[in-house]
Amino acid sequence: MKFTVLQAGRVLFWIHRKTKEGPAEQPCSARNSMRLVRFLAKRLMHAAFVLIGLSILIFLIARVMPGNPARMAMGPRAPQWAIEKLEKQMYLDRPLPIQYFYWFKSAISGDFGDSLVTKRSVSEDIIEYFPASLELAIYAAVFMGIAGVVLGTVSGWFANTWIDNLVRVIAYIGIVTPSFVFAIFFVLIFSYWLELFPTIGRLSSGIDGPPVITGMVTLDALITGNPAAFWDGLKHIFLPAVSLAMGPMAQEARITRSSLADNAGKDFIAAERACGIPERTIMFKYLLKPSLIPTISIYGLDFASLMGNAFLIELIFNWPGLSRYGMNAILQKDLNAVIAAIMVFGVVFVIVNIAIDLAVERLDPRIRFRTGG
Amino acid sequence: MTQPLLAIQGLNVGFKVFEGEMKVLKEVNMTVNAGEKIGLIGEMGCGKTTTMKTIIRLLAEPAANITGGRIMFNGTDTLSMSRGEFQKIRRNSLSMIFEDPTAALNPVYTIGTQVRDAVYAAGNFKSKPTRAEVQARAVRALEEVALPDPERVLNNYPVQLSGGMRQRVCIAMALLSASDLLIADEPDTSLDVTIKDQVLRLLNDLVERKGTSIILVTHSLGAVRKMTDRIYVMYAGSIMETAPTNMFFTEPLHPYSRVLVASAPRLTGRGIGEGIAGRIPDYINPPAGCRFSPRCELAVDECIHHRPEMREIRPDHFVACPQVDPVVA
Fold first, then answer.
1. Do A270 and B53 touch (CB under 8 A)?
2. Domain ranges of chain B
3. In Å, what is the CA distance from A87 to each residue of A21, A72, A92, A118?
4. Which of A96, A338, A359, B297 is at a distance of 20 to 30 A from A201, taking alpha carbons?
5. How far away is chain A from the Cα of B309, in angstroms, using its nearest Cα?
6. Could you say which residues from 118 to 137 on chain B have a Cβ atom under 8 Å away from some Cβ of chain A?
């Protein structure tokens, strides 16, 4: 495994060098795909450095925290010799760089050690909890994207009218209210009073869960063709996803609104109007696309942070997610689990950012043609 | 005389701002005949662009406020037209070129997308046109403005073109929907010296060939002198003087016009002109009389308290200044 990671790095570097000079006589599409490959290779290399940096930082923080991991693992009544033996096993008697080296060696083969709390391998825990977090984040992101863009667009089109003011008030409320407050309100209104949605968990007890394929209940239900479970899963995920997404949704709406209103005053919109291009085309095409670019950049950051910030929502809705797992690990000084959970969030963050940069690069030729990268 | 193509009569435009209302345009009168080439000169911030944007209804409402006057275009008052009716005029008869071609092209769409949409809007298609038809017209539009390799330019994004090429694209797009009148708002200002002349000459050739009227707003007196038939001088939102171009440059009569012409730097090297002391008046509390009076060397009491009337000093040469004596022809 270690070998393959190194090899992958070498391949990336080779691709990056090979794609440097695209011959001018090549057809446009070939040059475009070359650029894409080069871009990806470069970004993946950057990502590797970022993740290594993150791991060093988290590892050091975890090691300098007070408390002996071996002592905590064995419990207060364990004899001294047993603790010393475990310390040796965990390389805790070696200098920090050596410790990190051993950690890194097993981490790249997917072994993050054992959790003190669940007494299982941390990797197993993550495989169990991560899909639930991802599923929650995806639904939250879908809501955040659609609602944020629609609200922001309507607000921007009707800038400085009562519609705009209403949306802006909603957006402020969304931004200043913590997600758990939304969660409590929503549970109270929609679950308790209106009885539209279930309160906690991922599935009702009467429903047979689909077999675990991806670990995401609604997706598994779809794959196995189980509409009842899909519908039930959807109802369960609705409230947590919406309460989680309210804050960033308001952020998207505000950014979309302001960049729409800003672009609406630009000369190119005036020029298009002067050419007699229909107002509908201008609004939906020429005004919307340039205005969505900043929204998409922020969207990526928000999506990645949705996962990490979900612990209160996961707690309220009893959602078996990684964010709650990580929080518990921090509270109980379960260091291996803390490091692993943070690394997973780091990987998600890096991947989402590459995807968003790629999307923005596709949308904005100013970036595509100015950076030769 | 036949009816003029465009007649602006007593146009007043204000902008609501925090401090009150800026009364920018005051009693602007302007006439453009079919096929005529008009130059509009005056210093920065004196309402040239506002006038142009009012003609084509591109003012940023609701801040901008047309408080009086009429704009007759081909005999109908455009200010009382509905949006839909005016859209027809924008699609066929009237268009505008902007100062900065970089800002006037949508950065995230290819030139082709934008030109094809303009082709489609300009219409004159009997039935729904095929892609190829629209593309062919787009190519022809770019050929007209002497862009080399139009097919390639259509596939490019604005950032891939030079400033001069962008302005040519803007001209091509505007000309598609300007069969009667083209408003060119400082089309040369943001271009390199070497490109300026090329673009202006191109513009001149095109409007001459098509018989389109043009209003050329510019700071370049040389360009106005070469290109236009008639000149309007604007100061602080009012027309100060209008005359046929030759007559104007032989002898500008309004005190403002005289200093304006004298301020232009000359290549023959008599140094840099003196300029005019002072600056454009505050539009929220503009001078009651002549708006140039605070800076005018010839100003008397009458100028400060009474708005000067436009008087025909010479045949076809109008000046809004009581201090200018009629020239006996």
1. yes
2. 6-93+177-319
3. 53, 11, 5, 20
4. A338
5. 33
6. 118, 121-122
Alpha-carbon distances, residue A103 vs A6, A106, A123, A321, B108 (angstroms): 16, 5, 14, 25, 47
Note whether B32 contacts A: Cβ–Cβ < 8 A.
no
Tell me the chain A residues in contact with residue B170 when contact means C-beta distances shorter than 8 Å: 271
Cβ A278–B87 below 8 Å, yes or no?
A: yes
Q: Do A364 and B56 touch (CB under 8 A)?
A: no
Domain A122-370 listed as CATH 1.10.3720.10:
yes
Q: Identify the sign of the CA torsion B246, B249, B255, B260.
A: positive
Name the closest residue on chain B to residue A368, using Cα atoms.
B159
Structure ipTM = 0.89
| CATH code of the region B6-93+177-319 | 3.40.50.300
Residue B230 CB contacts under 8 Å (≥ 6 apart), including other chains:
B36, B37, B38, B39, B242, B243, B244, B245
- Give the three-state DSSP class for B26: strand
The mean pLDDT value for A289-304 works out to: 90
Are B240 and B257 contacting, i.e. CB atoms less than 8 angstroms apart? yes
Determine the distance in angstroms separating the CA of A180 from the nearest CA of chain B, rounded to an integer.
39
| Residue extents of the structural domains in chain A | 2-107, 122-370
> Among all chains, which residue has been given the structure tokens 């010393």?
A84
Q: Pick from B297, B225, B217, B214: which is nearest to B261 by CA? A: B225
Q: How many CB atoms lie within 10 A of CB A332?
A: 14
pLDDT at A1: 47
H helix intervals, chain A: 2-18, 28-64, 69-74, 80-89, 96-107, 122-157, 162-176, 179-186, 217-223, 227-264, 267-274, 279-281, 288-308, 311-316, 322-331, 335-363, 365-370
Contact B103 A272 (CB under 8 A): no
- Tell me if the bond preceding B62 is cis, omega within 30° of 0: yes
Q: Which of A274, A293, A370 sits opposite B95 (nearest CB)?
A: A274
* CA of B286 vs chain A CAs: smallest distance (Å): 27
Chain B touched by A266 (CB under 8 Å): yes
A262 touches chain B (CB under 8 A): no
Given a cut of 90, whether residue A231 has pLDDT beyond it is: no
Instruction: Summarize pLDDT for A87-140 with one digit per residue, the tens.
Output: 888 788 888 888 888 888 888 888 888 887 788 888 999 999 999 999 999 999
pLDDT at B268 over 80: no
Partner A contacted by B114 (CB < 8 A): yes
| Residue B40 half-sphere exposure toward CB, CA atoms < 13 A | 27
CB contacts of A277 in chain B (<8 Å) are 117-118, 121
| Residue A373 banded pLDDT, cuts 50, 70, 90 | very low
C-beta of residue B236 within 8 angstroms of C-beta of residue B280? yes
